[in-house]
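Journal club prep — side note

Before the paper discussion, L.F. wants everyone to see what a predicted structure for a comparable chain looks like in token form. Sequence:
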Amino acid sequence: MEKEVITEGPKRFIREKLRMPDGEEIDWYYLDTPDSVMVVPITAEGNVVLIRQHRYNLKKYTLELPAGTVLRGESAKDAALRELWEETGFELEPESSLIDLGNYFLMPSETNRNIHLFLAPSVLQGTEKPPGDTQIEKYFDMSVCSLPLTEALAGVGQTIHGMETAAALLMADNAMKRNPL
């Protein structure tokens, strides 16, 4: 199998030459990414903490949950806690722990991206300004907002358009209904 890395970086673009069962050869392109995490942070008041950020490729603002890449040698849970802090300034309450909502492939026809989803059932605002990351967030406008979970769920398709965020919100809501916190 012939394989070419078209672009290097945290998100690599790959072309592979595939031989189909009938002998036809085709080029298959996909995005090769490291594992990622997304966390659904819930405050004591029942609000979900979201990020409003400009997404250059969409040329508009989105409303999303804190998320990011799992760094080499880092566990998915540690990455979720780091991303929560970096992007929002919120931290998990000391007596609380993350709830694993599973891991899933996002757009498996286009990428091998595997995302680990977590519920942070009880978060507190930290005393320091969130640092953001040094690759992307320092360049694009981001702000933190919170709203009742029911309002966030009602916003799916209205103010929330990312499938990762929509799915994570629905899964967190189901988890909390099954096991009230």
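L.F.'s comment for the group: The first helix runs from residue 76 to 88. Keep this in mind when we get to the figures.
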